[in-house]
Amino acid sequence: MRSFKESGTKILCWSDIDGRLNPLGLALPALLLIVWHLVTVDGNIPGYLLPRPMEIGKVALDFALGNWQLTPYSGTMLDHSLASISRVFSGFGFAAAAGLPLGFLTGRITAVKRTIDPTIHLFRTIPGIGWLPVAMVWFGVGERTTLFLIALAAFFPIYVNSAQGAASVPPQLIWAGRMLGANKISLFTTIIIPASAPAVVAGLRLGMGLSWAYLVLGELTGVAQGLGAVMMDARMLGHVDMIIVAMVCIAIWGRVTDLVLTTMFKLYQPRAGGAVS
């Protein structure tokens, strides 16, 4: 009997996930920074529209350290970042807790797919901004609306990718598991979930990215702390520099959480997924 490798079947496992940093990825940001400096250095573009990179750097350091009191947000970066990170992980956690099991069930059980999949895809077509008015009616302005928007946005890519990954598991693996005496639960835990890993992690990464995007939308509705709240407050006070600094902070924290997510899955490689050959 030929092994799966000999028969040409590619086995996807957790080790296929790549979340490494590549120095080449810094080339484009560096180029953009150079262009930014060149177009603002002569003063033709007013500072209230696009401050120079050096000015942004000073404001960013002051936002983090509070040495110069350049803005009302001096020295508050940690507090605002922690508030935003907490909301992102809370909303993302709710989304993953619902999206992963529903996705796996939809991908493997036809009756579940026919029952819930059409409705979920119907709701998925509603743009996130469309949920904001009703969320403010249901939950009020502030924390709960933000968490609702984050969880809703992250749920759909997690669900869709989990369902696709579970549905795409090679039939040979299922047959082999059944021949070895695996029941329905062990088929999920030792074969379906590990083999679905690349699609699942792709969905989780998309969900994490959308969590940061919808964090800003939620925090614009009136929370006291958070990077999105800083952006709204800075806009009203005319601090374009702080808006840009807050955007950069969100980008950095978004990338950090993405790397944390992929690193966690790289470290956790179920033996069942790697043992199949």
Automatic annotation (TrEMBL):
CDD domains: TM_PBP2. Keywords: Cell membrane, Membrane, Transmembrane, Transmembrane helix, Transport. Gene3D superfamilies: MetI-like (1.10.3720.10). Coiled coil: none annotated. One of its GO terms (cellular component) is plasma membrane. Residues 81-261 form the ABC transmembrane type-1 domain. GO terms for biological process: transmembrane transport. The keyword Transmembrane applies. The chain crosses the membrane at residues 21-39, 88-110, 122-141, 147-164, 185-206, 212-230, 237-256. It is found in: Cell membrane. It is a multi-pass membrane protein. It comes from the Bacteria. InterPro entries: MetI-like, MetI-like_sf. Belongs to the binding-protein-dependent transport system permease family. This is NitT/TauT family transport system permease protein. It comes from Desulfofundulus thermosubterraneus DSM 16057.
